[in-house]
Amino acid sequence: MASHHFDHVDRSGSVSGPPSAGDYAFDRGFRGIAWLSAAFILALVVYIVIEIGGKALPAFSEYGFGFLTSTTWNVQTGQFGILPEIWGTLYSSLLALIIGGVFGVAIAIFLTQDFLHGHLAAVFRTIIELLAAIPSVVYGLWGIYVLIPLLRPLANWLHGEFGFIPFFGTSLSGPGLGPAALVLAIMILPTVASISVDALHQVPYKVKEAAYGMGTTRWEAILKVMLPTAGSGILAALVLGFGRALGETMALAMLIGNSNQISLSLFSPANTLAALLASSFPEAGPVEVRALMYAALVLLAITLIVNAIGLAVMKFATRKFEAER
Amino acid sequence: MSEPNLTATAELIALGAPEEAPRRLPNLNRAPFEIRALKSGFLTALTWIAALLASVPLFSVIYRLAIEGGSRLDWEALTALPPSAFEQGGGFGNAIVGTLVMVGLATLISVPIGIFAAIYLAILDPDSRLAHSVRFLSKALTGFPSILAGVFVYAVLVVTMKTYSALAGGVALAVLMLPTVVLAAEQAMMMVPKKMKDAAFGIGCTRAQVIWKVVLPTGAPGILTGVMLAIAGAAGNSAPLLFTALFSGYYLTSLTEPTASLAILIFNFSGMPYDNQIELAWAASLVLVMVVLVFNILARIIGRQKH
């Protein structure tokens, strides 16, 4: 037994004692559980990929890669294709990234470049963080009853005056890509902002002082020194925000209109992979479930790749500053 | 000998060599209407506008929730069962219970595993290959689409148990809570000062004793913050429940039957053409947002006490 290691020590008159057999058992058990828990997470992720991949396999062998380029989703005839969903997912996420990215980075600058006093900045940061706390379904509800009625007159005016531009090619009758992308932008804004804030905080203070010391204006310092220095961190923020947008489900299922079409128009209904899963899965028969599993695998692959790129960029950004210090 | 020479050199540096024309100093005064200053001011104004615009949605959501949801929120809404299509009145009592049960289950599953995994990552073996891969996968899981957790649990639990259930819903939420708990707990344990750990090791503690009696109590506020944030996220998350817990019009009687939740109720009712259901969707949203905000604020308060 391990407790015999200390048996030769003379402890006469001392209150101290070696760890008892119980202490050793506790130590081993404790570390064993910790190792098991860590290994469990690894196994869980592997299992998720294998499970979704395995369930998608029958559909993959049946439809092959044509599934990715076909545009019909017809349960009666057993024809399945997800090109409109892939298009809708990428298009809505890209729009959300443009809007959410511009606002997110602007807010990160606003929070870190001395626009506000410390206390006010903390309050404002909380407001932006709470934006991320509002559940997706609540954004969906808000989008249906507040945002869409608000956007409809503007959208229909744009369609009437500038209908020849493909982006305004249809009128907004109800749900559509534009409102969905706008809500998506609101939802990814906090992600982009908080990672960008961290990136800007990592820039050593002396870099900013040096820029101001040369007589730059505040925005010359931000645009020519701070943003380029924090560039890779901000890039990571944008990539991770994009990843968030790709997988977002409920608000989109409520706002995008679930229509199987490919259109450049901001006001036409569309569909995304996640929204397709949400709206079709609960009532799907076995044949459709197989096709949906394939769609889930495609979504998994896209988000895993985008997230891995984002994390790699972030790691690179952090390392750069650690090396400098 | 050297003294006057030095002064002469200093004078030369200060005044410039006498034979050259005196050098003019650059103008160091502020020029507020210079193009570059105006550009800076313009961008500053734009940033302020962007920041104010970005906070509009939060206030708009909260305002509408208070107006639309507040008018319908009463005892009946909190306790009654959901109404059918043309029925008046009703509420979402079963959905509140369902949400609490499933989030509770998810917490029971994810918190112990998450904290133990974090112990391994932060203290036992931070540089091992297992730790590196678990850390990476946890970060990747935070960006994992929540609906895929539903697909996974559907394939694993719903298909094998042949029924939608609260259990399946809880497991799906646990998958989503796990990475948040792991990363927050790891961060909190790494913040525990090294000298505290060294002191404990120095008096002969085993590793388990150091972690159990020193690291966990000291890191507790940070860990709890992570747990609270994970709970808030899970409570508002609905996508994974769509086809794991499904929905039910009745109160929960066992963990292995379809279960109602607030988020799914909002999703179902928001698309219905009946005013009664839409009002209830707003009221349920108000309850849901209040639950989520309470956990968020708790997390902030606990997190702040640390400093």
TrEMBL record, chain A:
Belongs to the binding-protein-dependent transport system permease family. CysTW subfamily. GO terms for biological process: phosphate ion transport. Its main location: membrane. It is found in: Cell inner membrane; Cell membrane. PANTHER family: PHOSPHATE TRANSPORT SYSTEM PERMEASE PROTEIN PST, PHOSPHATE TRANSPORT SYSTEM PERMEASE PROTEIN PSTC. NCBIfam families: phosphate_pstC. It is a multi-pass membrane protein. It comes from the Bacteria. The lineage of its organism: Bacteria, Pseudomonadati, Pseudomonadota, Gammaproteobacteria, Candidatus Competibacteraceae. Part of the binding-protein-dependent transport system for phosphate; probably responsible for the translocation of the substrate across the membrane. The keyword Transcription regulation does not apply. Keywords: Cell inner membrane, Cell membrane, Membrane, Phosphate transport, Transmembrane, Transmembrane helix, Transport. The chain crosses the membrane at residues 33-50, 90-111, 123-148, 180-200, 221-242, 291-314. This is Phosphate transport system permease protein. One of its GO terms (molecular function) is phosphate transmembrane transporter activity. Gene3D superfamilies: MetI-like. Coiled coil: none annotated. Residues 86-310 form the ABC transmembrane type-1 domain. InterPro entries: MetI-like, MetI-like_sf, Phosphate_PstC, Phosphate_Transport_Permease. One of its GO terms (cellular component) is plasma membrane.
Automatic annotation (TrEMBL), chain B:
Keywords: Cell membrane, Membrane, Phosphate transport, Transmembrane, Transmembrane helix, Transport. GO terms for cellular component: plasma membrane. One of its GO terms (biological process) is phosphate ion transmembrane transport. Its main location: membrane. One of its GO terms (molecular function) is phosphate transmembrane transporter activity. It is found in: Cell inner membrane; Cell membrane. It is a multi-pass membrane protein. The chain crosses the membrane at residues 42-66, 96-124, 136-157, 163-185, 280-299. InterPro entries: MetI-like, MetI-like_sf, Phosphate_PstA, Phosphate_transprt_permease. The keyword Cell membrane applies. Residues 96-299 form the ABC transmembrane type-1 domain. Pfam families: BPD_transp_1. Belongs to the binding-protein-dependent transport system permease family. CysTW subfamily. This is Phosphate transport system permease protein PstA.
